[in-house]
Amino acid sequence: MKKFIYLILIMTVWVASCNPYDSQIPRQMVGNYVDPNNGKWEYGFFEEFAIYDNDFWDYASVKDSEITLSKASGEQISLKIEQSDDPFLIVNGKKVMKYNTVLEPNTNNFSIQYQQFKGIEKDTTMFKPITYNIDTAVIRIYIRNTAKGIRSFSRRNNNRVHTVCVNNNIDSRFYCVPMLSSNDHYGYRFEFKVPVLGVSELPMSALLSDYGYYDELSINYIVEPNDTLMFYFDEDIEYIRNAYELINCITLCSGGNYRFNTEKNATVGLQFFGVEPNGNLDSLAKRFNNAIDKCAVPVSEKFKKIVNLKFSNPIIHNADSMQLGINESDILQSHTEFYFGILCDEVYHQNYYYQSSLDSLAAHPDWIVKKGWTMQKDFKQFLRTHPNIPNQNYADTISSEPNYLIDVQKFRDFGFSDDYIEFYRLKLAVDFFNPDYENNHLQDYELESIMRNIKRADYKAYLEDRINFYKIFNGSM
Fold it and tell me: 12 φ, ψ to 5°?
């Protein structure tokens, strides 16, 4: 027995003190490399693969002065490697710097480590205007969890979820994918292909959390149509139980909107510290704008726009969705879905609607079917399980309002295009298949009307996918 315990102790010390798996490149070379002038992520060289140009590459060959990378498609690239003073390498004639920095949170400014990249240039680009197409974006992620110590092994698959959340202009969806390779020993690689319509948000904490927690961040990562993004998270330091603990991560991103996503990382202290207990958004907006004004490096126009949007209206902030990109000839001098929602409410309150029924749809076959009021499932359960709440019985006695119809001509009268009307029809249809709410039952004739009036193939496919997901989620398929 003593020999067995002794052997276990020896193995524990060995595992804790070294990496037990082989490396295809020199160990001193392992890490991420950025442009030392502006911090842009250029390369990731790891034991079993490399990261370059927003993609994962295999090592085809490794020599002292040259590394050849390849992909399954047959594409190859050669990198001439020259050693330089630590922490630098020269790759294909360009000096790059090894990056292993955890950004220290600052409650009133961008992280000082980010501001030290004096070569960051001004960025005046703006978000793409919406085209009403449901496009695809590719999200690649490497979560580094180095094989050092027993703890890294114990947490490798401990309640690990493999989902990423995407908030687009239609709804919020969780997408689950397997790891790209089950043979990776030092972390996890993922590739998500997600639908985006306009600017979409990527709350990452659901992916990073060991327990699948979902936290609302003041500012999330963003993705646009046809983007390819690469993210790196090094959680070797500590568990990532929620979004707040991202401050303990080494974080990097590249690809479309890498600048915005990097700025988001650099403001994690602003997002989580110093917020007034009453959640005063005016105070938070002032701190953000003060930080932008005194930042030692230029802040992108995209980031400024999101700050002004997120913290100028509490409904947008609390809904945790930017909903950017819809621009109907600047009808409302705003690109936010929130103001379109006000307009829709105006249509509603002016009584330009009918209660949905077989007869009313027969009389108005092209009108939009909208869900009546429903209660969020979590809130209903909260009411049921808290006996001291005066309206406890409210959860079981309330009846949902009936579905109703909206006159599409009134939207045309306001100046909305038929493209927007079809988009809005899809958006309201998707809302019927949100598993988080006690949904009103959608009658067959209502669904038939929706499908008949949605002409776009990509919209139909999106709605059908949402319906199937809803059925699976509720165990009816």
Answer: -60, -45
DSSP 390-426: TTTTHHHH--PPPPEEE-HHHHHHHT--HHHHHHHHH
321 Cα distance to chain centroid? 10
CB crowding 302-327: b at 16 or more within 10 Å, else e: bbebbbebbbebeebbebbbbbbbbe
Which backbone phi and psi does 440 adopt, to 5 degrees? Answer: -65, 145
- Distance, in Å, from the CA atom of 311 to the CA atom of 346, rounded to the nearest integer, reads 24
Number of other CB atoms surrounding residue 301 within 10 Å: 15
Q: Are 453 and 364 in contact (CB under 8 A)?
A: no
Instruction: Kindly state the percentage of the chain with pLDDT values over 90.
Output: 35
Residue 72 Rama label (left phi>0; alpha psi -120 to 50; beta):
alpha
The residue among 254, 202, 204, 205 whose CA lies nearest residue 56 is: 254
Q: Residue 206: is its pLDDT beyond 60?
A: no
Specify the pairing of strand 228-234 against strand 135-144. parallel
Q: How far apart are CA 431 and CA 372, in angstroms?
A: 10
- How far apart (Å, rounded) are the C-alpha atoms in residues 31 and 236? 13
Q: Angle at CA 109, nearest 5°, toward 238 and 216?
A: 55
Q: Report the 10 Å Cβ neighbour count for 79.
A: 17
pLDDT digits (tens, 9 = 90+) for 53-112: 999 999 999 998 999 999 989 999 999 999 888 899 999 999 999 998 888 888 889 999
How many residues make up the chain in this entry?
Answer: 477
pLDDT of residue 447: 94
Q: Is the pTM of this model over 0.90?
A: no
Percentage of the residues of the chain whose pLDDT score is greater than 70: 68
Exposure letters 266-286 (e unless 16+ CB within 10 A, then b): bbbbbbbeebeeeeebeebbe
pLDDT of residue 439: 62
Q: What is the mean pLDDT of residues 315-326?
A: 44
How far apart, in whole angstroms, are the C-alpha atoms of residue 148 and residue 163? Answer: 25
Residues 6+ apart with CB under 8 A from 90: 81, 82, 83, 84, 96
Beta strands 200-202 and 228-234 are unpaired
Q: Are 148 and 16 within 8 A, CB to CB?
A: yes
Neighbours of 462 (CB within 10 A): 22
Mean pLDDT of the chain: 77
- Class of residue 33 by CB neighbours under 10 A (exposed 0-12, middle 13-18, buried 19+): buried
Element holding 63 (H helix, E strand): none
Quick one: tokens of 126? 């703006």
The answer for 351, left when phi > 0, alpha when psi is -120 to 50, beta otherwise, is: left
Q: What burial letters (b/e) apply to 222-240, b meaning 16+ CB within 10 Å?
A: bbbbebbbbbbbbbbeeeb
